[in-house]
């Protein structure tokens, strides 16, 4: 997309009355135009470390998924039984 097309897209997204989630790479235009939006950086699980981090811009407050680290920070974490399986984004981790 050229600069004009990106500006037009941002105009449409900013005018949209419903929830919007935009995925892309960090750039000054989006950061400036979407300044009041929630912004989250993610590292794709299947990408090499040299790849840029993806950015999610949201015009709504995202719901947070509870993780084991959240439980531990909140003091409610209990160690999982030996051999338990924890699902995380489709991956399985044995504890």
Structural class: alpha+beta
Quick one: biggest sheet?
3 strands, antiparallel
The count of helical stretches stands at 3
Sequence stretches where pLDDT stays below 50 over 5 or more residues: 75-95
Proportion of residues in helical segments: 25-40%
Overall geometry comes to globular
Task: Give a brief description.
This protein is an alpha+beta fold and 95 residues long.
Describe what this molecule looks like in 3D:
With 95 residues, the protein is an alpha+beta fold. The protein contains 3 helices and 5 strands, in the order H-E-H-E-E-H-E-E. The strands form 2 sheets. It has a 3-stranded antiparallel β-sheet, with no helix packed on it. Strands 4-5 form a two-stranded antiparallel ribbon. It is globular and about 35 Å long. The termini are far apart.
Q: Any chance you could write out the topology, listing elements then pairs?
A:
Elements: H1 3-15, E1 21-25, H2 28-33, E2 38-42, E3 54-58, H3 68-74, E4 85-88, E5 91-94
Antiparallel strand pairs: 1-3, 2-3, 4-5
